[in-house]
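[job 4471] stage=fold_predict status=RUNNING
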Amino acid sequence: MKKYNEKTEVLEKIADKITSWIGSIQSLIVHTLLFITSFVLPMLDIVNFDKMLLILTTVLSLEAIYLAIFIQMSVNKSHEKIEDIQEDIEEISEDIEDIQEDIEEISEDIEEISEDIEEINEDIEDIQEDIEEINEEEDEEDHNERAKNVMLKSNVSSNKNEIKALKDIISQLQNEIDQLKKDDKETEE
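[job 4471] inference complete, writing structure tokens
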């Protein structure tokens, strides 16, 4: 089977070369020279005109048959290539459809992520508001505590002053009591 495929490939290459040569300027020149020579030979009495026409017609008929075969081989090969290309195009179309579906899914995911981000932003704003309220409450509590501390300190200071004043009064009273005791003792004596 391998040898058959190799022979087929060789024949296809030969057919491609012949077909491409037939469609070239060189082929046109060679055929024109052959036709001119074919008609000049009978004029020079080298070949009989009827014999030349018979040979020319036979050669041209064989050439036409082979050319038709070579052209059909090229057409078949081109048709196979076109079918391969169509299959490739269909596969590419399917791939494109798959990619479009993937893009749609990604778009939906992006929309969901955007919604999630918006919700997170709203949550962050709520948290910031809560933090601000807590800070305000703490500030108020701090103010209240400071006020209490100031009041306590002022009360303590006031109490210290009152205690000092009371101590002074007690001292005076103690002194007076002591004085009275002394006076009493002296009077008793």
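[job 4471] summary: The longest helix spans residues 49-188.
[job 4471] exit 0
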